[in-house]
Specification:
Belongs to the ABC transporter superfamily. This protein is an alpha/beta fold and about 240 residues long. It has a domain of about 160 residues: P-loop containing nucleotide triphosphate hydrolases (Rossmann fold), CATH 3.40.50.300. The protein is built from seven helices and ten strands. It has a six-stranded mixed β-sheet, with helices on both faces. Strands 2-1-4-5 form a four-stranded antiparallel β-sheet, covered by helices on one side. Strand 7, helix 5 and strand 8 form a beta-alpha-beta unit. Helix 4 packs parallel to helix 5. The protein binds adenosine-5'-triphosphate. Adenosine-5'-triphosphate (ATP) binds next to helix 1.
Length: about 240
């Protein structure tokens, strides 16, 4: 058995046009931030959907904390995929309280967790504002808060820096580094190579549905290394 917190082997799921995920192995260890980068359409979101049981693979396996997906304890997982899921007519605070409940947080602990989470993402001033009246960036902060507030052991975030302002990017960075230091396993996709180099322990490059290589977070020209790997994969295809 693998000791990885998140472990996927041989994952395949393609769409009618042949794109999708075409054979991926990926592992994330406890205490690690594993970043996933790739061009638009590389398959990052599809892979994350497979890891979270939102999409069934044609073949391959996923285990979370050593358990297959049908036996996973989902209260130990936090995720944000595509765009933040929130009830438009509920306030920030109400949405977070609902999210905490759905993640199995004991009722007596919910108010404290929600307030701490709003403080962490600097959402407190919007606590009583309906989601329908939030800016895009603050909706994204809410989605991140909802994914992180119950201190999950496994965290999967698809492009969390999307629509964040520079202050939000810094708050997110600090929140993710804190979670990793506390032992969580994080898989985070991003198009911001400098940001993933800052926080990633490992950076995997995805192209055309496969993981084609990795980048050194401490490398001198990460953008150039990224395009070298992608272009040589495209030339080989
Ligand atoms: N529901 C779907 N039906 C058909 N094709 C899809 C579907 N979802 C994604 N695809 C296709 O699968 C491929 C991978 O898409 P995916 O969204 O996983 O990539 P991505 O790396 O997350 O891209 P981006 O960086 O643009 O978010 C693309 O060619 C996309 O058009």
């Amino acid at each position: 058995m693998s000791d990885a917190a998140l472990d996927a082997r041989g994952l395949v799921r393609t769409y009618d046009d042949g794109t999708g995920v075409r054979g991926v192995d990926i592992r994330v260890a406890a205490g690690e931030i594993h970043a996933l980068v790739g061009l638009n359409g590389a398959g990052k979101t599809t892979l994350m959907r497979l890891l979270l049981d939102m999409l069934k693979p044609t073949s391959g396996t996923v285990t979370i904390a050593g358990r297959s997906l049908d036996r996973t304890d989902w209260s130990a997982v936090g995720h944000l995929i595509d765009y933040p899921l929130a009830y438009r007519e509920l306030t920030c605070r109400q949405n977070l309280a609902l999210g905490a409940r759905l993640h199995g947080v004991p009722p007596a602990m919910i108010p404290g967790i929600v307030e701490a989470s709003m403080t962490e993402l600097q959402l407190t001033q919007y606590a009583d504002r309906r989601v329908s009246k939030l800016s895009l960036g603050n909706k994204q902060r809410l989605g991140i808060a909802s994914a992180l507030q119950h201190h999950p052991r496994i965290i999967v975030l698809d492009e969390p820096t999307n629509t964040l302002d520079p202050a939000g990017v810094i708050l997110l960075r600090e929140a993710l580094l804190r979670r990793a230091a506390a032992g969580a396993a994080l898989l985070v996709s991003s198009h911001h190579l400098d940001e993933v180099a800052r926080i990633g322990d490992r950076i995997s490059v995805m192209n055309a549905g496969r993981i084609i290589g990795s980048l050194d977070p401490h490398g001198v020209d990460i953008e150039r290394s990224f395009f070298d790997i992608v272009h040589s994969d495209q030339d080989a295809a």
